[in-house]
Specification:
alpha/beta; 5-stranded mixed β-sheet; 12 helices; 33% helix; 22% strand; globular
Length: 379
């Protein structure tokens, strides 16, 4: 393994992502040397069925026990069904499924066994990306920031910009592309902004029996409760300086206060909290940004996008506007991070997760049949 960036070996890596919205597993191929994006490859999606979603949901917030074991089995099997479809890849970046995340407490838990996948698929697997960061004092999230930096180079950005991921939880990356490497001071700032699609989806299931508010159509029929929005903005999380991260259900107790509102008003209000949280995050940027590139499922929600455009004061567009794939960006990120980890390059730094120093992470597991002896070690 080499850390000399002008002579790094490139790989065809496939990355995967199973997010907190529980729609399914994304997988995407990326050719990279861990520094430059060379080529974007094919992508695929494996949906979870309703039984699988319920088994994973039962594991949320748990650290051990049968609910965690059952969730891990679902996650491993879904990834195996998807990854077996990819031929001629050199490396797999396997994120797994986050069930619990308390970086200042019990740690972080992503279920899914990369060693088993390596054995079954016959390809080296990089996994458990977050644990080492948390053990070193970091938040363990968000981790896509270094890939966002590479994307800013790929699109030829010359001014500071922002990558905003509206997934189950919102996270944001401020990128200054004048720097050569992402771990340099001033190049990046990233952190979780607050709840995004997860509470909207949860409320739609509880109130309307639907998986999501498709396009924000239902929220448009409601009225935002400004009193609750003020209460939300007083949450202690927003006073914490970044880097910082959130568990999916961190605001769950607060959202119970919406129980007296009508269905439409409740969904409109919880949707408004997503954008309010994003704008609170902008307060920490070192400079103004030229544009916001939105990824994640939230970019399809016209109610969210309208509020964001009204509040942001700069260009706001789906990430497809610059030729990137917003549905697969996180999967591509873990393909990129897998190669970086394999080369022992940093995947996080003080300004992205709050770890004490720029550091690599993850575990590399090799298949027995490809290498004669199973190797399983931290990088």
């Amino acid at each position: 393994m080499s850390s000399t960036r002008d002579s790094l070996q490139s790989f065809q890596a496939v990355g995967t992502m199973s997010g907190t919205s529980l729609d399914g597993v994304d997988a995407a191929v990326l050719e990279t040397d861990g520094h430059r994006i060379i080529r974007f490859g094919p992508t695929r999606f494996q949906a979870y069925n309703e039984e699988e979603k319920e088994l994973i949901k039962k594991g949320f917030g748990h650290w051990q026990g049968s609910a965690v074991s059952h969730a891990e089995e679902v996650v491993n099997n879904a990834h195996k069904r998807l990854l077996v479809q990819f031929k001629e890849v050199d490396l797999i970046g396997f994120h797994g499924q986050t069930l619990a995340h308390e970086p200042q407490g019990l740690g972080t838990l992503q279920v899914g066994n990369g060693a088993d996948l390596a054995e079954e698929l016959g390809v080296p697997v990089v996994w458990d990306f977050r644990s080492r960061d948390v053990e070193s004092g970091g938040e363990g999230a968000p981790l896509a920031s270094f890939f966002h930096f590479a994307c800013s180079k790929w699109i030829g950005a010359t001014a500071p910009l922002c990558f905003l991921n509206l997934g189950g939880v919102g996270n944001i990356t401020y990128v200054n592309p004048i720097y050569d490497f992402p771990e340099l001071e001033g190049a990046l700032l990233s952190f979780d902004t607050g709840p995004a699609n997860a509470p909207i989806n949860d409320m739609m299931r509880a109130r309307r029996g639907l998986d999501m508010d498709r396009g924000g159509a239902f929220a448009k029929t409601g009225r935002v409760n400004q009193e609750f929005l003020c209460e939300f903005n007083n949450h202690v999380f927003f006073a914490r300086k970044p880097p910082k991260s959130l568990d999916r259900n961190a605001f769950e107790g607060l959202f119970h206060l919406l129980s007296t509102l009508s269905d439409a008003d409740a969904v409109a209000t919880v949707s408004a909290t997503c954008i309010s949280a994003v704008m609170r995050g902008f307060e920490y940027f070192p400079t103004v940004v030229s544009q916001i590139l939105v990824t994640g499922g939230g970019r399809y929600n016209t109610f969210l996008m309208k509020m964001l455009k009204e509040a942001a004061g700069c260009s706001v567009n789906p990430i497809e506007s610059v030729g990137l794939n917003g549905d697969m960006l996180e999967a591509q990120a873990f393909a990129y991070l897998a190669v970086r980890a394999f080369h022992e390059l940093p995947i996080s730094c003080p300004s992205t997760t709050g770890t004490r120093t720029a550091m690599s992470g993850g575990i590399v597991s090799y298949p027995h049949e490809n290498y004669g002896i199973r190797q399983h070690f931290e990088v």
